[in-house]
């Protein structure tokens, strides 16, 4: 089980879609999963900012991943690629771990933390149970490594609100901790 994490704009989805393509080119049977909450490109589409797109199986909030795959009669796969894995719950990540234990390769892509530097439930569990954890890096505007997904509204960094607010470049910017704290001190 692999967990690839990075801030927004670190090419997580593009990397996931390219990995899917490469595996299929080499005869692997790949399915792509995404959480129900990510509807930015349509309910069943995973789309990167550079334009790569693919149909995905949507997993509902509290649904069993294993039961969902059985219900959709999807049995013939040896690789699962998950986009936006941070939005899955602990039980769903444990199911992916179980599938890994049964010989299926599982590759999860997602954010590690929210805009307040708090772990998402799915990311926390992935950090606990993944065999391999790799960061996809992206720079802050100052040049340092971005580690925070700063949330913006009306040109100002937001430091309070709901943990999940779906958005892209219109709401979030990758930022290093130092720049994020500078903005917080100004607020």
CA radius of gyration is 17 Å
Instruction: Average the pLDDT over all residues and give the rounded result.
Output: 91
Any idea what the CATH architecture is?
3-Layer(aba) Sandwich
End-to-end span in angstroms? 40 Å
What is the name of the CATH superfamily?
A: P-loop containing nucleotide triphosphate hydrolases
> β content, as a range?
15-25%
Number of separate domains: 1
Q: What is the strand tally? A: 11
- The ordered H/E elements are EHEEEEHEHEHEEEEH
The helicity comes to 25-40%
Structural class: alpha/beta
Shape annotation: elongated
The CATH topology is Rossmann fold
Number of helices: 5
Which regions contain 5 or more consecutive residues with pLDDT less than 50? none
Q: In this structure, how is the largest beta sheet organized?
A: 6 strands, parallel
CATH class: Alpha Beta
Kindly report the spatial arrangement of strands forming the biggest sheet. 5-2-6-7-1-8
């Amino acid at each position: 089980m692999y967990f690839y994490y990075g801030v927004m704009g670190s090419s997580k989805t593009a990397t996931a879609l390219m990995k899917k393509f490469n595996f299929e080119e080499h005869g692997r049977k790949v399915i792509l999963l995404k959480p129900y909450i990510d509807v930015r490109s349509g309910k069943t589409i995973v789309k990167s900012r550079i334009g790569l797109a693919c149909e995905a199986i949507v997993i509902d909030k509290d649904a069993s991943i294993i039961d969902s795959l059985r219900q959709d009669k999807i049995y013939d796969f040896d690789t699962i690629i998950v986009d936006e894995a941070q939005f899955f719950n602990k039980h769903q990540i444990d199911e992916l771990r179980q599938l890994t234990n049964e010989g299926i390769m599982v590759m999860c892509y997602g954010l590690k933390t929210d805009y307040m530097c708090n772990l998402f439930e799915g990311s926390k569990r992935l950090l606990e149970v993944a065999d391999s954890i790799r960061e996809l890096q992206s720079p802050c505007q100052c040049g340092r490594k971005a580690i925070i997904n700063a949330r913006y509204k009306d040109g100002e960094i937001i430091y309070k609100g709901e943990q999940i607010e779906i958005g892209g470049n219109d709401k979030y910017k990758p930022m290093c901790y130092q720049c994020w704290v500078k903005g917080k001190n100004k607020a």
